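Q: For a teaching handout, I want to show students what a protein-ligand complex looks like in token form. Below are the inputs, and the small molecule is NAP. Please produce the holo structure.
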Amino acid sequence: MHVVTGGGTGIGRAIALSLSQDGQRVLIAGRRAAPLEAVVEQGAGRIEAVACDLSVPAGARILAARLSGVVEGLVHCAGGNPAIGRPEPRTLEDEAALAADTLAGNLVSTALTVTAVEDRLSNDASIVLFGSIAAEHGVGYYGPAKAAVASYAVGLAARLGPRGVRVNCVSPGYIAETEFFAGLMTPERAAELRAQTAIDRTGVPADAVGLTRFLLSSHSRHLTGQNLHLNGGAFTTR
Ligand SMILES: NC(=O)c1ccc[n+]([C@@H]2O[C@H](COP(=O)([O-])OP(=O)(O)OC[C@H]3O[C@@H](n4cnc5c(N)ncnc54)[C@H](OP(=O)(O)O)[C@@H]3O)[C@@H](O)[C@H]2O)c1
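A: Here is the structure, written as tokens, with NAP included.
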């Protein structure tokens, strides 16, 4: 089976549906039941859902309890930027809460999800974590939290490598048609982000499906411990 967290919406939803269309059994996870159930309905009987908050140990235990059989692929899409739509911090307490929530939703949820699933992984399993271009730009606490996810992937790849398990991080630029911006992305800002790409193109969840399916497959069998940028050339590495 495959596990796709954040599978109720956006990138995770697209990945889960793609896997199910190819006959794979998929367990999707997210906090809200309604979007998860909508994906289950489109999954031709091959998608199951579990509602849980993966940023806390109790939620990760709920996920672990729903695993059955061997996990061939884990895609951790759950995450986001809690600063979006939240008032600017005005006190030290507000600042601490925003920093803690951001790290919990991205780094801690990654660590707890991996730990919950680890014992079930097949010896040739592939793990795909999600970072962000925001790590390169130092965006609030979200950028640092995603930089931490990319770094976590490096250590995890070294730790699980001897078992044959590969770990990579996908770091997207702006991807439209997700719930990430909570409806607050303006046409002007979206156009700016599009203009930052080399190909004058806005990314969509299907773009992340292609890269993630490659990373889950044996076509990428010599690729591990990497941070792969997916942004139409808006940020480049060499
Ligand atoms: N869209 C972009 O432009 C963009 C750019 C760079 C990186 N990313 C990253 O790509 C990943 C996928 O995001 P997306 O763009 O597809 O946005 P999205 O539509 O908001 O998807 C995020 C999913 O994660 C789930 N989630 C969030 N926190 C969770 C938690 N604590 N426990 C369980 N599930 C949780 C959400 O569902 P619930 O709210 O129901 O829990 C939601 O289904 C995220 O890690 C995001 O940071 C996105």
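A: Two things your students might notice: Residues 5-6, 8-12, 29-32, 35, 53-55, 77-80, 105, 109, 130, 132, 172, 174-175, 178-180 surround NAP (CB under 6 Å). The two ends are 35 Å apart (CA to CA).
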